[in-house]
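Final report, closing paragraph on structural work. Over the funding period we assembled a curated collection of sequence-structure pairs, and we close with a single example.
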Amino acid sequence: AQHFMHPERPVATVSPYATARCYFDRASGPEQISEDELDQMDEIFKDIRALQIAASDYLHPERPLLVDAYVCARNYFSRPSEPEYETFGAAEERARIVAEARALKHQAEIFAHPEKPIETTDATMFGRNYFARSSASEQEDVDECEERARILAECAGLKQSAQHFMHPERPVATVSPYATARCYFDRASGPEQISEDELDQMDEIFKDIRALQIAASDYLHPERPLLVDAYVCARNYFSRPSEPEYETFGAAEERARIVA
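Its predicted structure, as stored:
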């Protein structure tokens, strides 16, 4: 068992004729790699290790380089293939401009929205009232505001009353089920109303007036044609019994001869 577990130990024998096969060349041993293949494999692993180190350095340029003291290298940030970058002075100038723009933005927000609370960390800071400043527009006091609100409420009520007066046909909108109202046409201030009998009598009067108007027009203008039914007949205007006496055709010629 010791020989099997530790084949590297030397074999001690007393017989000069004893022989044994090689452990590594035995028939059941794994396939062995030649010395050339080992050298080639060692070169491959060295290349892989170098590629791994180069990839790590490329992805993480901020890591420190562990090199020989006599080794030199170019600057990563000033290499010819590096994109153009600003100088230290330009970076400070840009930072100052950005800070001023941020401050202007903050001031513009405060000016446009004075209702926002002011955040400060200095307990000794103080400021004037925005609405009571010298350049502020004239402000109304509480009494004037209440008076203006009351006037506007009365104007709104008058406007609604005027709309109801000018347009009584509009429906009345109310939210109270107990609200009542008088009739617009039966109100005390309304004009006197005409009853149905009076309307019928008025209609008859207008019909008579219209008939009298037509008769008077026909009497004053007998030359106008009559628009009547085909079955209607009438007497001659000039030979009616009430017509004044007029001379005959022979009497008219005799009178003309005598006058001549």
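The CA atoms of residues 254 and 260 lie 10 Å apart. The chain has a mean pLDDT of 85. We thank the funder for supporting this effort.
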